[in-house]
Amino acid sequence: MNNIKVVLTVAHHSLREYCKNKLFAILIIFSLFSIYASLLVGIMAVDQEYRVLTDFGLGLMELLAFVYIVYMSAVSITEEFKLKTIYLVLSRPVSKNAYLLGRIISLFALAAVILAFAGSFQLLLLKFRGFDYPLLYHKIILLMWMKLAIICSITVFLSFISTSVITTVIISIMLWTLGHFAPETKFMIEKTQGLSQIFLKSSFFLIPNFQIYNLKDSYDIGLSAYDNFKAVTYLFAWVLATFSFSAFIFRKKEF
Amino acid sequence: MKFNAILSIKNRYAFVAISGIIFLATSFHIGQNYKLFFPPPSHIKAFKTSTAGDILALNLGMRRLFADLWFVRLMQYYGTTEDGVSIYKPMSKDQAEAYGSGRYPDFFSMAEHIIQLDPYFKNAVLYSAACLAFNLNKPESAIKLLNLALEYLPKEWKYLTMLAAIGYSKAENPTKVASSLMPLIKESDCPVMVKQLVAFLNKKAGNYANAYKIYLNIAETSKDKYYVENAMKELQKMRFENKSR
């Protein structure tokens, strides 16, 4: 079978599997409810309702999508190993690389589905309150998706090297928080010297810098802060690296 | 097909090495050119029990959202008289007249905290500076706050206008304060508190037409019940005075 067809078939089936999961339904209901609940905070902000409603919606959307994506990335392949269902797939003419790529693409698509759902709901809510389409909204969502794609690739890679799902999830959460700490790390690099500076510098380059995708925190200070080309290149570099490392380990893995 | 070649690549060591090099080069390039937009953590002073929230704000990349939360808290703090009566509940005439003034000892620290989290939150800066300078009689604190915000937006004309108005208020020239703040109130994001202040100063200076227009704007556009009710009252009063003249 053609490799691209295989990849797309794996991706399609995996995405259906993720969307049929009970947790997915709970997440969607919970995220819609939370975004709706942000109306209350918005009303408390009186004349700043628009800003607060937009910020709360975006924040909740990202957080909930992150939780589900990380969990799914951590369990999707590991569960297949545990339940031995991976034999059913790999006993057919499906290469390990195609299987892995299919899985990763389905997780990317899952992130897009969650953001599209929650984003549409938030826009409806804003419309209902009589507000306009928020500034750069589509770009904020796209950058949010890129951020989720990076953490998802990292989590898949971690799931190959770690011993349990919990460890994978914890490390991913740590990387997520450290990734947002990039400006502070850069500030600390400038303030330190010697060994600690070397350590901080290497961690700065080796930990994903999620701040370059964090347009939701600063969309009114102008586009100049965010370079489209850089954002896409950085995403590509992270996805390529984590995919190749994961594939390398996957090939060596014995069942 | 190239894509198929990648998927069935034989030399996996070469694939890993190439992707590793691409990754390192990109990471290095992005890291080297990364600019700081926000105040570093050492510039964020914890306010009472804000430490845990501040850490979350930084770690989750949600400075803006936490600044919003602090702004809501600030408005609730200032929206309650120092006797503990909310401005949205019925209050005595004395309480109503005294509202806005007072000590509000935490006001500056709360406002400063918002700016340290999100220095680009213009509405919060203008609202806090105007309250400090014109209602709480603390122009020095207001100037300090505006200067802090100007570090991140040095060309922001709204802050410079507010600074000029504070300067006039120090010279006890209400007419100049009102005229210097006029361009600000034409902006859609101008805090309603500033609009009310300009309307009041215009009325005091005898510019009834301007004052009427501003009160009308507040009554039509604001969502704040307190300011809307006050604007309606003022409009009624001005209509009545106009008829009797």
Residues in helices of chain A, as a percent range: over 70%
Distinct helical segment count of chain B: 13
Distance N to C terminus of chain A: 23 Å
| Cα end-to-end separation of chain B | 89 Å
* SS class of chain B: mainly alpha
- Protein structure class of chain A: mainly alpha
Poorly predicted runs of chain B are none
Query: What integer value in Å does the Rg of chain A equal?
Result: 20 Å
Strand content of chain B: under 5%
Count up the helices of chain A.
10
User: Oligomeric state of the chains?
Assistant: heterodimer
What coarse outline of chain A follows from CA principal-axis ratios?
globular
Number of strands of chain A: 0
Q: In a nutshell, what does this entry contain?
A:
The complex is a heterodimer of chains A (255) and B (245). By secondary structure, chain A is mostly helical.
Explain this structure:
The complex is a heterodimer of chains A (255) and B (245). Chain A has ten helices and no strands. The mean pLDDT of chain A is 87. Chain A has 255 residues and is mostly helical. Helices cover 80% and strands 0% of the residues of chain A. Chain A has one domain (3-252). Chain B is mainly alpha-helical. The mean pLDDT of chain B is 83. Chain B contains 13 helices and no strands. Chains A and B meet through helix 1, helix 3, helix 5, helix 7 and helix 8 of A and helix 1, helix 2 and helix 4 of B.
